[in-house]
Amino acid sequence: MPLSPILTGASGMVGRAVLLECLDNPNVERIVMINRHPVDVHHPKLTEIIHADFSDIEPLREQLRGYDACFYCAGVSAVGKSEEEYTRLTYALVVSFARTLCELNPGLVFTYVSGMGTDVNGRQMWARVKGRTEVKLLNVGFRDAYMFRLGMLLPERDLPMKTAWVAAMYRILKPLAPLLRRFSWATTDKKLGRAMIIVALHPQEEKILESTDINRLVTLA
Asked: How far apart are CA 135 and CA 127, in angstroms?
């Protein structure tokens, strides 16, 4: 069955990984990416929508009808942010976006990139906020929804890295990639993209997926 997903976060490492896998996958018929700023990726089955305010996607309603999946890969770091600000960007904005999509496409499968250690009762602020976001998204009313608790993402392609310290860390770790792939908390960019496509096409019992679940899904597919 051909898949038509909506994608956010294509300017970042995770979103770009999912985008490139979608473009390569024959099961993906068309994809629309919503970005705050243009992304220099072009493909016959790709449409780009530039929209600055993700808290209000009402102006995009008609452009977002007729899609059957959303790969929500946009996100912000909690570093330097108050809990109030992080909640607005990570909970309120995402939930508002999801509710509008659900109204437009009730049969849609929604996937959200969370993080390893997410816990609604956790000690860390970011973990609690993302935990609340996960709970809400699982109950918005979509046909199906999955929370991807990503650990370490090991790039197999050239991916954008927005911050200098992240780019430096990956340069240091690159020679260790074959070893790191053996750990349960690590997965690759290609496996992440494939796993999202798999859950959008084939319902899974588990709705919260850790890196080990991502790797297992791809192996079994």
From this structure: 12
